[in-house]
Amino acid sequence: MSLKLSYTLISPIYDALIARATQKMRQKSWSQMGEMAGLSVLIPGIGTGLDIPYLPKAAHYTGVDITPAMLHRARKKANQQNLPVDLKEGDILALSLPDQSFDRVVMHLILAVVPSPQLALQEAARVLKPGGRIMILDKFIQPGENAWVRRIANSLLRHIATRTDVIFEEVLAGVPALQVVNDEPLMAGGWFRRIELQKQATRIG
Questions:
Q1: What secondary structure does DSSP assign to 73-132, as a single string?
Q2: Which of 22, 64, 174, 189 could share a disulfide with 118, CB 3.0–4.6 Å?
Q3: Tens digits of per-residue pLDDT, 113-155?
């Protein structure tokens, strides 16, 4: 089953399944973003817009998702919050956005969903300005961790909604322009982590 079809089918119940379980993590992550006034912020995989209630109103937001049914619900949330968000249908593995066009990229619960998390992170780095930051919130297996239950569960879940076998350090290894600024556990014994990355400034000469 394709990711687009899967999320189209679950979009009517997605918030009921996910919203309460992730609310505190999302709220905490946005509260740690720092000064956002005037910044251009990309939210790839914005889904139904569960992040929208926590967005600082002084920034400029672009949200991308592959599923129109999810974007429809995100648009409703943005209207309810009276918050202008430029919502676009698109594949975050191949963003139709120019290089170095955003100050921040926020990837909440998306790297463990897409079929190629490394490509998603590479695209995020491409559209990020030098010195800009990527904020990640997701579930990752630690390097060398057995986690056999999560690995077995992944064989089923990856075809429905999410992956449970992603190792962040392996994903990051393919994006050398990014450096870890902060990495903290949030819940489930450190399975969920909030990771902040910074894109190195382009060297001249």
A1: HHHHHHHHTT--EEEEE--TTS--S-TT-EEEEEEES-TTTSS-HHHHHHHHHHHEEEEE
A2: 174
A3: 898 999 999 999 999 999 999 999 998 987 655 554 444 444 4
* Helix, strand, coil percentages, rounded to 5, for the chain: 35, 25, 40
Q: Please give the helix or strand (H or E) that residue 143 lies within, else none.
A: none
- Based on its alpha-carbon atoms, the radius of gyration of the chain, rounded to whole angstroms, reads 16
169 token code pair: 């350090």
Q: Which domains does the chain have, with CATH numbers?
A: 3-199 (3.40.50.150)
Contacts for 154 with CB less than 8 Å, ≥ 6 apart: 163, 164, 165
Q: Is the pTM of this model over 0.90?
A: no
